[in-house]
Amino acid sequence: MAVTVSKAGPYYTGSSSISFSSLRSNFRAQVKRTSSGESESFNSDTSSISASDLLRTTRNTNTNPVVPNATENANIVTSRSDWSASHFRDSIKFYYVILPSGDTVENFDIDSQSWNSNLSKNVNKVAFIDGTCGSNDVTSPAATFNATSYNFTIKVDGNILGAGGRGGGQTGAPAISGENGGDALSVSTTGNNVVVDVTSNGKIYGGGGGGEKGKTGANGTAGLCRETTRVQSGCQQGNTTNCPGGWNQYGSGNWCCEWKRGCNANIWWKDCERYYSTAAGLGGAGGNGGPGRGYNYQSGSLAGAGGSDGTSGGGCDSTSGETGETGGSGGDWATDGTGTNNSGSGGSPGRAISGSNYIVTGTINSSTVKGAYNP
Prior knowledge:
Elements: E1 4-7, H1 20-27, E2 32-33, E3 39-40, E4 94-99, E5 104-106, E6 108-109, E7 124-129, E8 132-134, E9 143-145, E10 149-156, E11 159-161, E12 185-188, E13 191-198, E14 203-205, E15 223-234, E16 248-249, E17 267-278, E18 353-356, E19 359-362, E20 369-370
Parallel strand pairs: 4-7, 5-8, 6-9, 7-10, 8-11, 9-12, 10-13, 11-14, 12-18, 13-19, 14-20
Antiparallel strand pairs: 1-4, 2-3, 15-17, 16-17
């Protein structure tokens, strides 16, 4: 990560001369730079200027101070009686931090960069996001700004991409419900005039929610088996042989040659039967939900997995279990994951911008901002 610092200044380094015309050019008729160094109009006032116009402004509610309060401007006085042009040595008008195009950083902490203690001062500051900020974790935004600041702009000409939620049933995700998508940019600040400015090339995309795990397939029906056997013994008066335990006699049974009459078929018998159930086939497991689109899953199918086949029944007209339901599809950028007939839900989408006390300007459309963005 090659984050760089740039300034409108420092002016009047070394022993360079300091004139009122140059002070007017640098502090009143100044232009604000873009991330690549080009100028963009900020203030084109070229009217005459005096020492009283060139006092350092410390009021934080001033959104466009002629001479801003900055660490670099500490020598510039706030009272006309003490004013001297020499106080402007090494002074600045704007302060910039730049994430260059082509660079990628995960979980970019904007306020922890090298602001030289200027965040809480009224000097206009810009964080240029020209590269890519991403997150692989839905609990951590791709970029965050969490500080008291005044006159601070996050200018997005690159990409800030939240993490996509995992599908239900996936490792680390809830057992059934899809995981919620992650936020792209979090701005939680106290202060004044904190702005997120999106260019036509910028992308601030919340992550998609994961799909819900499919419902387990219905179990089959149990079967009922019948088994028979014959118990028998020699024919004799008073024989008391019965069906085994758990078996019942059916039919007349007990047939025998009459005792006392000689007979060659001396057989005494009973026909017995029993019934028992066989197991139903078990329903197959539902398929895992599909992943949500995010920095961690920028391409590939969002579809959920197919369910598993049910098991076979245990015979005797038992039936097999049904195939498990296909998992729900993951959501595209900043879109809900799809639900199924299971008991959970698809994951909710991440926000493009979350937090408080900021405004959003620039080119805002379905190509530049995906997800909720208002405080």
